[in-house]
Backbone:
């Protein structure tokens, strides 16, 4: 396989991962809530909602799912590069990766 074919294949796999992540209504809700975490989640003790994002427990509670199910949704979004996980004082906070989301949107517009 040539370098060009490999690169093309890598981009395809990356876009497939992103599209699969976006194919869930719950994950779309998480992305929407993380646009403005202060408006969608209660005050946090250990992390700034704008700088660090929302606490995983708040996200899971708002989704109304079990902790394992919520963690799975968050992992899919992290693996797709749409959100960033930041561990802080025993909790994990999630925020959108705006630069990456913009990059993906631009790539999608080219297709």
Residues:
């Amino acid at each position: 396989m040539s370098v060009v074919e490999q690169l093309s294949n890598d981009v395809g796999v990356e876009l497939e991962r992103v599209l699969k992540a976006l194919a869930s209504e719950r994950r779309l809700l998480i992305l929407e809530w993380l646009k403005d975490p202060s408006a969608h989640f209660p005050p946090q003790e250990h992390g700034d909602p704008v700088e660090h994002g929302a606490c995983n427990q708040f996200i899971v509670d708002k989704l109304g799912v079990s902790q394992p199910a919520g963690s799975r949704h968050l992992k899919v979004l992290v693996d797709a590069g749409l959100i960033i996980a930041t561990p802080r004082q025993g909790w994990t906070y999630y925020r959108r990766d705006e630069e990456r989301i913009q990059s993906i949107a631009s790539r999608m517009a080219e297709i």
Notes: The chain is about 60% helix and 15% strand.
